[in-house]
Design goal:
The complex is a heterodimer of chains A (about 160) and B (about 110). Chain A has about 160 residues and is α+β, with helices and mostly antiparallel strands. In chain A, about 30% of the residues lie in helices and about 25% in strands. In chain A, a hairpin with a 3-residue loop joins strand 4 and strand 5. The radius of gyration of chain A is 16 Å and the shape is globular. The chains are: A alpha+beta (about 160), B alpha/beta (about 110). Chain B: Belongs to the anti-sigma-factor antagonist family.
Chain lengths: ~160, ~110
């Protein structure tokens, strides 16, 4: 296993106006770590999707906090987005993951539900845990040639080369 | 991290010019502007995204909602001028199959 070189953590109010702050912070961090332009753009969307989930679902009546943790490794970064909400509907999050089905009638298309699909498409690995709240961990490798790239985000080869 | 919206009426269609970033915070502004525009019978709306640098699922959701309303009302809308990154998100999600997207940059209309 590779060792964690740095750990960065933020806590922000779980409000929509702070999703952009999270996005730009991750962008700055990924840029500093040497990620490519496209990888940075992917990470911005993936982390925004996770943060938006917290903002929209985690807290019903009160404004809680969203926690963003970044574990920096030599060859990858892990981004952990968490809430302490009680009412996050974990089942809903996992329902109907996938792209839009063009054969479905337009009226049956869902306005939500693309978030998790995008996280999986734009990072190399997504893990979701439900503890006291929901924790989403996304992994993005620094050197993409170590990993076979799949549009559906499933990592098929072992990325640990050493 | 802001969004600017401008509506232009042309002889045969309406144009909604969107500039900035579409995310959880700004998507409601887009929705409030776009939905009334396409809620008229037979209305044709062109949404110019050439100055949009960022969009995520919240923005895609607005366009899905708009598509439903447009279908109900017999209105049509088309997205034009998408930047590469923005276009990519519509492709990954399969939305480019259901939403009318004009690949060409809207040079002639300016």
């Amino acid at each position: 296993m590779s060792e964690v070189l740095d750990y960065i953590e933020m806590k922000l109010p779980a409000k929509a106006e702070y999703v952009g702050v999270v996005r730009l912070t991750i962008s700055g961090l990924a840029s500093r770590l040497g990620y490519s332009y496209d990888a940075i753009e992917d990470l911005k969307i993936a982390v925004a999707e996770a943060a938006t989930n917290v903002v929209e679902h985690a807290y019903k009546d009160t404004v809680g906090l969203m926690g963003i943790g970044c574990r920096v490794f030599r060859d990858k970064m892990e981004i952990i987005v968490s809430d302490n909400g009680q009412s996050f509907n974990f089942e809903d999050l996992q329902k109907d993951i996938g792209p839009v089905n063009p054969n479905k009638p337009v009226q049956d298309l869902k306005e939500g539900g693309l978030g998790l699909f995008l996280m999986e498409s734009l990072t190399d690995k997504v893990e979701i845990k439900q503890e006291s709240g929901v924790v989403i961990k996304m992994t993005k490798f620094l050197e993409r040639d170590e990993v076979e790239q799949h549009v559906d985000g499933i990592r098929s080869t072992n990325a640990q080369h050493q | 991290m802001d969004l600017y919206l401008e509506t232009l009426k042309e002889p045969t269609k309406w144009i909604l010019k969107v500039s900035g970033e579409i995310d959880a915070y700004t998507a409601p502004q887009l929705k409030n502007k776009l939905i009334p525009l396409i809620s008229e019978n037979d209305r044709e709306v062109q949404v110019d995204l050439s100055d949009v640098q960022y969009i995520d699922s919240t923005g895609l959701g607005v366009f899905i909602g708009a598509l439903k309303i447009a279908n109900e009302k017999g209105a049509t809308y088309k997205l034009v001028g998408l930047q590469k990154r923005v276009k990519r998100l519509f492709s990954i999600t399969g939305l480019d199959e259901v939403i009318d997207i004009d690949e060409e940059k809207r040079e002639e209309a300016k």
